[in-house]
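Researcher: Here's my situation. A collaborator sent me these components and asked whether they could plausibly form a single complex. I don't have experimental data yet, so a predicted model of the whole assembly would be a useful starting point for our discussion.
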Amino acid sequence: MALKQVSPTDEFIKGLWRDNPVFIQVLGMCPALAVSNTAINALAMGLATTFVLLMAGLSVSLLRSFIPREARIVSYICIIATFVTCVDYAIMAISIELHRALGAFIALIVVNCLILGRAEAFASKNNPGRALLDGLGMGVGFTFALFFIGVVREILGSGTLFGVDMFPDGFQTWTVMVLPSGGFFAMAMWLLVVNWIRQREGGAEKQANERSREVAS
Amino acid sequence: MNEEGYWSIFLNAALINNFVLAYFLGICPFFGVSAKLETAVRMSGAVAFVMLVASVCAFGINLILEAINAPYLRIISYILVISSTVQLVEMLMRKLSPPTFRALGIFLPLITTNCAILGLALFQTNKGYGFTQAIVYALGAGAGFALALILMAGIREKLDLADVPELFKGTAAALVVAGILSMGFMGFAGLGR
């Protein structure tokens, strides 16, 4: 693999903070809001999306010289749909409960703009190694974003984290957080945090990256 | 076969389980095109039309897939039908109404990746709706999408004039508005199932 210009680690890192798919690019919002009512759902959704991102990126990158320009979007969608079907059946085999909790949203990974966006903007122009790194970075960034939203919603909405009680008896749960509107509020709150950090840090990405981890943990 | 009445299906799709505000489907165009009222109206028209066609197609495809016992081809064939429909709508619009075509810009081809449409096709299959039921469901979903998008566009046009803190501008403010709107729609929950 000939890696030039941008270093491989940068391809990976950019998905975590500078080009974070959810908080900065605001892509793939539907699953980010819909299945983030508990931390575990959010994590599962993030991992499934990461897998599809990786595999679709790899395939598109390998086939990039064979796919005619005019038919590229349709070909990408076919590739993505194939892997989504794989994930759908794999999750059904691993845990039927999880499959029920995520519902149609696994199938809806097909129309996650993030995946098509990366295939079009990155994988179709770069070699497989870089496409894999980019997919991994974006996937991890997406998973983290979903996880953070999920943690806030689960702790406030049901008073638990991963099903373990977080508060003493008598804590009044904020039911609104598990309802659909809670998704919008939790996402808005994280966007504010991210905007605030970006404003303070200016252009210093490295520091911002570390800071985001501190804030999040 | 599902025995639900037409009126209940329509209300359910349009208000109680509104695609945008309760199921989070079609969030991208919801935030992307809701800055101006006029674009929002045109966009919802296009989406509602694609929904109707996609719903009819999905019903036919599902019959074939069940006949040849290949449910694993469902996702891939649905999405292909939807993208061809979108292409068709795009060509029609360019011919019939060039200003609308220009106003919608990038969001017209993006209807393909609007989860509301694939979601509609998948939900109607999962619920086992018959042919007329599926059409009513698509009409309801289209109406619900239009309602949410137009309400949001109306609010955002007013929001432009308001004094919003620097940090809150843009997506964050729109998200909070959507959250409040979604709470409002929860009030419809008593209407039916």
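Model: Some features of this prediction you could bring to your collaborator: Residues 1 and 207 of chain A are 30 Å apart (CA to CA). Residues 22-216 of chain A form one domain.
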